[in-house]
TrEMBL record:
Residues 1-10 have a biased composition (Polar residues). This is DUF2079 domain-containing protein. The keyword Cytoplasm does not apply. Residues 1-28 are annotated as: Disordered. InterPro entries: STSV1_Orf64. The chain crosses the membrane at residues 33-52, 117-134, 146-166, 196-220, 227-249, 295-313, 325-344. The keyword Ion transport does not apply.
Amino acid sequence: MNNSILSVDTLQRHGKSGEGTVAENAPETSAGISGKSLLLVSGTFFLIYLLLSARRHAANLTTGYDLGIFTQIVRSYSEFSAPYSDLKGPTYNTLGDHFHPILALLAPLYKAFPSSYTLLVCQAALVAFSIVPLMKWAHKAGGQNFAYWVGVSYGASWGIAALIFFDFHEVSFAVPLLSLSLCAAGRKNWRAAALWSLPLVLVKEDLGLTVAAIGAYVAWKGPRVTGLAVAAFGAGATALEMLVILPHFNPLGQFAYLPPETAEEVGMLAQAAGALWPPVKWLTLLMIVAPTGFLALRSPILLVALPTLAWRFTGSNPFYWGMDFHYSAVLMPIAFAAAVHTVANGVTARRLLPACVVGAVATSVTLVTHPLHEVVLPRTWSDSAYVRTSDELLGKIPDGATVAASNRLAAQLADRASVSEVCLFPRSFPPKERPEWLIYDVADTSDPECPTGKALESADPGVPGYRVVETRDGITLLRLAGDGKGSR
């Protein structure tokens, strides 16, 4: 039997109108999609993710915020200590910033392979694996061709691409957990849906609300007691993390990402309207469902995205509103699970083809704007003079040294030295002892108010207490004075 979900034979069997549902038209099979097919799609995307992220790190395009911070966290866990990050501040316990103890799972691998690349390999593997549950369910719902469409469209989706492009983030653990949980929920395997959702509370503090949303869906469509218990657990975990755990470890004694206070005269309606403005928020909403050919809009599973959208759109940080960085990665498995659910519950074969075409067009457009395609560009694989210079100057810093580095260079040192942020030195969270080395990149515009940069770019360049070792291509390496090895 032809596996095509829209084959001529299929349409003929269900009449000229082709109004049989895709679930009815899909071929009967007991084995499901083959392991080779799953390996082909997920393995290909694993290589793409890994090549792109590893090459960006090799080209010094990763940053202290965030790959450097996460490297320090995992390095701390591998040394059986609390998750400290000097890039956030001297002996800064990052459990006061975000709640992500699941990162401890990476400690054994980091112990065996102590490198920032270890984090990038694990992220690529986690995200690539998340394709598998979606493809398995898509095959059962709509056949082999639909499964391939889901796997490729999801793997190349802009939210996933943005995560891979921008360093490493803890939400890479959330992506496969959401895929497993929502696929189980869509197939009415309620116990698995609940169990796969629970670890999300260990990934990030806001994801407890997503667990609560999954629990609400389970209570609505399945066993009420189980669903309500999961919902209560998720909401309670977020409350505990935001109100107790994070403030306890935060140096200021509060949750670091509290929403801004609103003027008393601003009414509830005005606040609600503000959550949907500026228009970039509408673009984000459109592009969450567009890669699914808008199939996701027809499934209640899409409601699981509401907690994430709520905190992002009510936040004051404009980075939360758009399509950049890693913030939308957790929305991609929700949207595609909703799309598969739609097909599994009655979309007609005649209507599916236009939806798949629309989704393919949307994904093709975002491939240009979101950089998975860079893996095949020649410039990605060539080292510039800047990279060669920065590597040479970074190589002068010995392993185990204390260093304050520019954001663009910090990630290169986080796995072999004690690194802090040069633009925070000595402005805030001053270290007890001054770092032995400073390395500053004039082209790094991460912090326009950088005190070290202003000192080096002044009429009489220099940093009090330090000697310039070398300056090349806008990168200045300094060493603490008094060692007799620096020179001006």
